[in-house]
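Journal club prep, shared notes

We agreed each person brings one worked example of a sequence with its structure written out as tokens. Mine is Solute carrier family 2, facilitated glucose transporter member 9. I'm keeping it raw so we can talk through how to read the token line rather than staring at a rendered picture. Sequence first:
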Amino acid sequence: MWNVLLSFSGLVALIQLVCLPFFPESPPYLLMQKGNKAGCLKAMKQLWGEGNYQTELDDMMKEKAVTKGTKIMNVLEVLKEPSVYPQLSIMLILLLGLQLCGLKIFETANLHESIIPYVSLGVALSEFISVIFCSSIIDRFGRRILLWGGFLLMALILVFLQISLLLSDQFLWMRYCSVIFIFLFIIAYGIGP
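Then the structure, token by token:
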């Protein structure tokens, strides 16, 4: 039944694709990119209900004035811009590390093959939990605190993960701790970085 489980994400994507035309454009996009003030107000009312959104509109106008001289770059232009190389390098290293670490950790933990599908399901659930949790706290704490806290949590979790992997040959239950630390790492990554 794994093919059914994997096709579920395709079903969700299809539902989103069908529903997307019925949702309004982003108000900041309409105002700052398209210059459509009336469309922006209409989108705000459609998204947030009736009300006075003059304060939000003024904030967007200030942001538009600040970014007026800024050129919007496509992907190739961003890749050619030397000022973004440090950020791109960090992002690339982090993404590559995430892609490669899970396979090696599951190998090192010597998990029984029958458990691997449940671990994969747990990884997906961890990602889902982190997205829900992050979207509910990002406005309260701000991105900077979530980034710093997420990186700090990830570092601590990696220390405990390394310890659990080193002790997994001596204590069989440490293998399951390794899996739990992987789940926590994914949640910390989803909440912060």
